[in-house]
Specification:
Serine Threonine Protein Phosphatase 5, Tetratricopeptide repeat; mainly alpha; disordered N terminus
């Protein structure tokens, strides 16, 4: 029956061309304001300061490491490869090219959604409206304006394409489609771990659309997952830190609260601020109870309409399947909820919204068109407004702190930004607030030590650093920075021997910490040990750590005196 319907009502090429053109133009217009946004949050750490991006290593070596650091919770090699290619082919530090790529990925994800909607429901208006609301909704700004969030459109584009190829193979067996199905799903999974839900999404498709499962085809997805998990396990990328350590009974109420808040954000997108922290909630919390009631109601509706209206059941199923990896019940995530966790699940909301409008169109075309225009303007207004908050780091961090005054990450990021702007006094105040929220050895203490160093309070800085040496971090990169700052303190004290020792320790702990090489090389040069100075610089250049010696004058000086 579905196949007959697809054959009779296939969208015309003209309509498809117009829809695709409009989606591309609207996407470019709505997100044009994000292009000049600076690097914020951890954008630098996933791009221009990511050792696996800047290193002169092969693309395939990226698959052997976590995304950005030894303590990262994530394994997203395709995102890292994309950043590596941008870094090498286009620019090293210009944030604009990264934003342009994120916008293009968002548009590609939207177009893949349009294709999937056409294959599933064969309705031009439904496919277009769903894709239109998806591309303009402000809840997606943290996934697009935030350069590190590019894994979201990247994984969704590949996964939806894989879904489309799967449907096409079910209609007619094709070796090229099968190859594309395998390749795009693998790319999706290695872009973001949320693609693990894909087999469940395929089962939902079979269950609702009454399609017989071709097991030889279907089993390909679980096999790719098995290979993915085996690789991560063998590389120790799946470790204890990847999984939540909190009891599910304590963690689950937060998931229900998130569901209620997500639905509110989709309807009324006010208060978008990315960092919601990881608080625990009681089962009798009012919003938790609302979330439980809404969840039960939606599940009831999904089963009620299973045979009456597959669209409603599919949309609800997609919403909950998409949220499953972000529940914090199994995998450990930075926040109990945040807007970019909605990138996939929100599609379910947009499908139902579009369905209601297209249904209304049959009874009143004028009201349906007016409602579509109003929703487009409504969502677009908030999306364009969001670009303002992502324009500069200080605006973003001040907004986050206004909504979540307990965010140590926001205080630390804001403090680091102020330090770069030559405002160490303001940085000190921000780091001290973060230390009050979370006392004890942490990244905050390291930031305090760095700030005291800039304020020339070397005694306070050294005391903190010594404590951090006695209580080392799980991150070798942070431990390397501790040794680097201690080395600079010894340089100020004219004790080059101890400075050299700590710089060498820093290089052992983090072979990609560029400042360690350049500082060590200059110490050797000052001591007229030109051979060792040149050797250190050559190692840095070999690793791709070249920004500070691009003029090559320093290297020429070393070679001349060697």
């Amino acid at each position: 029956m579905l196949q007959q319907r697809l054959t009779r009502h296939t969208p015309s090429a003209n309509h498809i061309t117009i829809h695709i053109s409009l989606l591309i133009l609207i996407g470019l217009f709505i997100y044009a304001g994000s292009i000049n946004g600076e690097f914020v949050w951890d954008d630098n750490h996933s791009t221009t300061k990511n050792p696996f991006v800047i290193a002169n290593t092969s693309i395939f070596s990226v698959f052997l490491h976590k995304t950005a650091s030894d303590t990262s919770l994530f394994y997203r090699p395709i995102q890292t490869i994309m950043a590596k290619l941008i870094y090498r082919l286009f620019t090293r530090t210009d944030h604009r090219i990264y934003h342009i790529i994120s916008i293009l990925l968002h548009i590609l994800a939207t177009l893949s959604l349009y294709w999937l909607m056409t294959l599933l429901f064969n309705s031009k208006p439904l496919s277009f409206l769903t894709s239109l609301f998806f591309i303009v909704h402000p809840v997606h700004t943290p996934a697009i304006d935030f350069i590190s969030g590019s894994a979201n459109p990247l994984f969704l584009f590949f996964m939806l394409c894989s879904f489309c190829f799967y449907i096409k193979i079910n209609e007619k067996k094709s070796l090229p489609y099968y190859a594309l199905f395998i390749i795009t799903y693998a790319l999706s999974l290695f872009s973001k771990e949320n693609a693990l839900i894909f087999p469940a999404l395929l089962l939902l498709y079979h269950w609702l659309f009454l399609k017989k499962i071709q097991w030889r085809l279907f089993i390909s997805a679980p096999i790719i997952i098995a290979l993915y998990v085996s690789l991560r396990t063998s590389l120790s990328i799946f470790d204890a830190r990847s999984f939540t350590t909190t009891s599910p009974l304590l963690q689950t109420p937060g998931f229900f609260k998130a569901i209620a808040t997500y639905l509110r954000l989709l309807i009324l997108p006010l208060g978008i601020h990315i960092d919601y922290g990881k608080p625990l909630f009681a089962w009798n919390h009012p919003i938790v109870l609302i979330g439980i009631c809404v969840t039960l109601l939606l599940i009831y509706i999904a089963f009620l309409y299973k045979n009456k209206n597959k669209l409603i059941s599919f949309s609800i199923g997609l919403f909950f399947l998409g949220l499953a990896p972000a529940s914090n019940i199994i995998f450990q995530l930075p926040f109990y909820m945040t807007e970019h966790y909605l990138y996939l699940p929100s599609i379910g909301f947009f499908i139902i919204t579009s369905y209601l409008i297209t249904t209304l169109y049959h009874s009143s075309q004028t009201i349906a068109k007016l409602l579509t225009i109003l929703l487009l303007l409504y969502f677009s207004f908030f999306t364009i407004q969001q670009h303002h908050y992502w324009k500069t780091p200080d605006k973003l961090y001040e907004r986050i702190i206004s909504f979540n005054p307990h965010s140590t990450t926001a205080y630390n990021n804001y403090g680091n930004y102020c330090l770069l702007q030559g405002q160490p006094e303001k940085s000190l105040n921000l780091f001290q607030k973060a230390a009050q929220i979370r006392p004890g050895p942490s990244i905050t203490q390291l930031n305090l030590a760095i700030t005291y160093f800039h304020l020339k309070n070397y005694t306070a800085s050294y005391d903190i650093l010594q404590n951090l040496l006695e209580h080392p971090s799980q991150s070798n990169q942070n431990n390397a920075r501790v040794n680097l700052i201690i080395a600079h303190i010894y340089i100020e004290k004219k004790d080059n021997e101890k400075a050299i020792y700590h710089l060498r320790q820093a290089i052992v702990l983090d072979p990609y910490l560029d400042k360690s090489y350049f500082t060590l090389s200059r110490l050797y040069a000052d001591d007229q040990q030109y051979d060792q100075a040149l050797d250190i610089i050559n190692k840095a250049v070999t690793l791709g750590l070249t920004p500070e010696v691009d003029n090559s004058e320093y290297i020429k000086h070393l070679k001349k005196n060697k």
